[in-house]
Design goal:
mainly alpha; 14 helices
Length: 318
């Protein structure tokens, strides 16, 4: 009996760990970490300065803000995620389902969302007042915290106001690049704005396409995101338009002095995004299995865009 109890305890702890990992979505954290790395490397390349302690703490703060966002989303979107699981959900939508599968207690998730947010704020204070990273450190961090945490959290709940996708584009595009650059260099050069546009466009499309499989559940729940407001056909056109905007912005960023090798790094992801645009124009999103593929490849394009810039400006790569 004692051995059986011990085995059950081990199994229970293992399921809890699995639940928290599932809830934390490690692969999706790259969407915030990669642009932050880009900003730091860009500052290093342009100013020859790099503080590893500041970089490490800044990266940790970005991860904590994302965790707070994910946890709050799981807690406050529980009803919608349940509806999504019963309808058209795929692996990229409808949340992690960790609470619904009883892998993690619901109250603990809510507590964790506040705890990670507080820890991120504490790191911001350390960076500004101990490491003297500059007066814009806390405002930049606060912008990310407010936009991320209140994406699903009342009373702001950006996801229901039709601006959630735009805020995510800002917070996973311009903000991490600018924040990392500022923490290292104490300023934000104009090149930061240019490189962040295609990154922001691609993460905007990640959020937009992930709303397609959630459409029936969101419509029932009254969640007024862009796909609900526009309908799938118009939202598909928007996806294509944003994709083209990312291409144009990438070309404009290249004119700011990026090495030619950037194009070689970006080419595979450009081709993927071109294929995705064609598929969306042909309404392939109406097929559930192929929609799941589009969701996954849209994330790849986002990761690849940030990575292309980073590899190109890494000292010694050009």
């Amino acid at each position: 009996m004692a051995e059986q109890t011990r085995a059950n305890d081990i199994r229970s702890r293992g399921e809890a760990v699995k639940g928290w990992v599932q809830l934390s979505r490690p692969p999706f954290q790259l969407a915030g970490v990669l642009p932050f790395v880009l900003g730091a490397v860009l500052a290093w390349r342009m100013y020859g300065t790099f503080n590893w302690s500041v970089f490490g703490l800044g990266t940790l703060a970005v991860i904590l803000i994302m965790l707070s966002t994910y946890y709050a989303g799981e807690y406050y979107d529980l009803k919608g995620d349940k509806l999504s699981a019963e309808r058209e959900r795929n692996r990229f939508s409808g949340g992690s389902q960790a609470i619904l599968k009883d892998l993690v207690p619901q109250k603990q998730v809510k507590t964790a969302s506040y705890l990670t947010l507080i820890l991120a704020g504490a790191i911001g204070l350390i960076l500004q007042f101990y490491y003297k990273t500059g007066p814009w450190t806390i405002p930049l961090g606060t912008a990310g915290m407010v936009a991320g945490f209140f994406y699903s959290t009342p009373p702001l709940r950006w996801v229901r106001r039709g601006v959630g996708e735009l805020l995510i584009g800002l917070c996973y595009g311009w903000l991490p690049v600018a924040a990392a650059f500022y923490l290292q260099a104490g300023t934000v050069d104009s090149i930061v704005h240019w490189v962040s546009i295609p990154i922001g466009c691609t993460i905007f499309n990640v959020i937009l396409i992930n709303e397609f499989p959630d459409y029936p559940a969101d419509l029932t729940e009254g969640k007024d995101n862009l796909v609900v407001r526009l309908g799938k056909n118009t939202a598909a056109f928007l996806y294509i338009a944003v994709t083209v905007t990312a291409w144009v912005a990438f070309g404009l960023a290249m004119r700011q002095g990026f090495p030619v090798v950037t194009v070689l790094f970006y080419l595979p992801f450009f081709l993927i995004s071109l294929i995705l645009a064609v598929l969306m124009s042909k309404k392939v999103y109406l097929d559930r299995k192929r929609l799941e593929l589009i969701c996954g490849l849209t994330i790849v394009v986002n990761f690849g865009t940030s990575l292309s810039y980073t590899l190109a400006v890494w000292p010694g790569s050009a």
